[in-house]
Amino acid sequence: MEISKVFGLPAHPLFVHVPVVLVPLAAVGAVLLAVRPAWRIRFGALVAIAAGVGLAGIQLAIGSGEALEERVRESAALERHEELAGITRLSVLLFFLAVTAFVLFDRYRQRRAVLAGPGTPAATCRSPLLAALTVITVAMSVFATTAVVQAGHTGAEATWERTSQEQPNGD
């Protein structure tokens, strides 16, 4: 999906702000859910939705970047940015899947505990699967945030490199 303009402006700089804002925000939310179990019911779905919208934003940013690519000069920085965009898409997809599985499994576990009643083994046992999902979710939040930052940084470098070369020498 290639979208080149939005409201007459280049779409890529607009779309990149969706994942740049939402993925780190969702990552912080996921870490908070990991350390504050009481917040999972209240904020879990919100964190998963933010990760999902961040993932959609990545796809829009990549599509608009491909449309923009036809109009800019190739450079090593631009090639690196393109590589990192693919890694970012994968990392944010994995983060979204991890946080969604984490939130859904925690809700399932809590419902099961309520149905079993207080003091029953289902209500009091700790789940190894939930522990694994917690670790995976936190790891994926770090991975996704790092990938978004690196892709954004190389995109800024490619833009700055191109812009500074177009400026005349002197002050």
Describe the protein in words.
There is one protein chain. With 171 residues, the chain is mostly helical. The chain has 6 helices and 2 strands. Strands 1-2 form a two-stranded antiparallel ribbon. Helix 3 runs antiparallel to helix 4. The radius of gyration is 20 Å and the shape is elongated. The model has no long low-confidence stretch (mean pLDDT 87).
What is the compact description of this entry?
By secondary structure, the chain is an all-alpha fold.
Give me the strand/helix succession: EEHHHHHH
How many beta-strand runs?
A: 2
- N-to-C CA distance: 41 Å
Report strand %: under 5%
Strand order of the largest sheet: 1-2
Counted by DSSP, the helix tally is 6
Mean pLDDT: 87
How many whole angstroms does the radius of gyration measure?
20 Å
* Shape summary: elongated
Instruction: Give the class from helix and strand content and strand pairing.
Output: mainly alpha
Largest sheet, strands/sense/barrel? 2 strands, antiparallel
- Helix content, binned percent: over 70%
Poorly predicted regions: none
Spell out the key features of this protein.
mainly alpha; 171 residues
How would the blueprint of this fold be written?
Blueprint: E1 5-6, E2 9-10, H1 11-15, H2 17-35, H3 40-69, H4 76-116, H5 121-124, H6 128-166
Antiparallel strand pairs: 1-2
